[in-house]
Amino acid sequence: MPDNDLKGSQREQLNKLLARDIRTEFRVIPVLKNVIYEPLVLGGAVKLHLLAVVIGIVGGGILFDVPGVLLAIPTMVVFKVFVSSTARQLKAYGLA
């Protein structure tokens, strides 16, 4: 193992560097997931605008923490279907 060749101070520096990299990855990966993956992939799959998905995810996270983030897109889709079907019904009756 290459760790056996290192002196104590070098090993400590390497451990600090690895710990910093791991902490950075745990901060960067969720941000990339929330900013790139969810809006582009999930927003495209449910036909929602990119900005609406980002605002929905951030708003859900602020209001309801983790459950809010998880349920933001399904809630937005239900709301979108409700509004579009209501608008369609109003047009059918000549009210809109």
In brief:
The protein has 96 residues and is an all-alpha fold. The protein has helices spanning 8-45, 50-92.
Explain this structure.
The protein is mainly α. The protein has one domain (2-92). It is built from two helices and no strands. α1 (8-45) packs parallel to α2 (50-92). It is rod-shaped and about 80 Å long. The termini are far apart. The model has no long low-confidence stretch (mean pLDDT 84).
Order of helices and strands: HH
| Biggest sheet architecture | none
Beta-strand segment tally? 0
- Briefly note the structural class of the backbone: mainly alpha
Report strand %. Answer: under 5%
Domain unit count: 1
Helix amount: over 70%
Give the radius of gyration: 23 Å
Weakly predicted, low-confidence segments? none
Assembly state of the chains shown: single chain
First-residue to last-residue Cα separation: 74 Å
Short key terms for the protein model shown above:
96 residues; mainly alpha; 84% helix
